[in-house]
Specification:
The chain has 242 residues and is α/β, with parallel strands linked by helices. It is built from 11 helices and 7 strands.
């Protein structure tokens, strides 16, 4: 398990530090620098004080303009910049248009969405890494609505860039199911047809990895050529001796 202090935000249960994970070269991802979350619309004043105490300077919001307008973020006093990098894979709001939804269809939809994340939204995630590359922008928090798909893929890329192995990256990704279980209990328990939309599953992230491996020559090549990450400098900034 990663060694990191656990911080919680009431009404944002998927908030967590992405640090603490061991890397393949025996280092550890620094804690207190990069955080992930679901939306910050309903966090409490105490939650805002928690973010301010963590010195959150930069927030990246992957939600669409419509999502942001409906549930705008509450912002901590420490914040220097809030940037919207809208990502809308698969246009999930159009699901209701299917008159005969099934669990398999919804799983297939999510798999397709993750393929889009890896391929179609490369410029968006490249911008994410450009923000991370500036030390003035950390500590940083990134999020979407549930903090599990767009945010989950971004976290997977970040940890991969730090040198964390794929098994540990997957485990961190899947932990969103634990954090979101209570928030989405009605959707998860309501109907097996819709359950796949409220959870993360290995086949979702694996679909993105498959695109990265087959279309771009693997994660290292993807990060260096598509995300334009200077991996030695990035790892120096975000990891430390274990």
């Amino acid at each position: 398990m990663p060694e990191t202090t656990i911080h919680t935000l009431k009404n944002a249960p998927n908030f967590r530090d992405v640090g603490g994970h061991l890397t393949t070269d025996g280092r550890r991802v620094r804690t207190g620098l990069v955080f992930r979350s679901d939306d910050l619309y309903d966090i409490t004043d105490k939650g805002l004080r928690t973010l301010t105490g963590l010195d959150i300077r930069f927030i990246i919001d992957f939600r669409t303009a419509g999502e942001v307008a409906t549930l705008p973020d509450r912002r901590p006093a420490s914040l220097k910049e809030h940037r919207n990098i809208p990502i809308d894979p698969g246009r999930l709001m159009g699901l209701a248009a299917d008159p005969h939804p099934t669990a398999d269809k919804n799983i297939g939809l999510m798999v397709s969405c993750y393929r889009e994340l890896a391929y179609d939204y490369r410029p968006s995630f490249r911008e994410f890494f450009q923000v991370l590359a500036d030390p003035r922008n950390v500590p940083l928090l990134f999020h979407c609505t549930a903090g599990k798909d767009r945010t989950g893929f971004a976290a997977a890329l970040f940890l991969s860039a730090c040198g964390v192995d794929r098994e540990a990256v997957m485990a961190e990704y899947l932990s969103s199911n634990k954090y979101l279980a209570e928030k989405y209990v009605e959707g998860i328990d309501y109907d097996e047809v819709w359950k796949p939309l409220y959870q993360v599953r290995p086949e979702y992230l694996d679909a993105a990895f498959e695109v990265i491996d087959s279309r771009f020559g693997g994660m290292t090549s993807y990060l260096e050529k598509e995300m334009e990450v200077d991996l030695p400098s990035f790892r120096e900034a975000f990891t430390e001796p274990a």
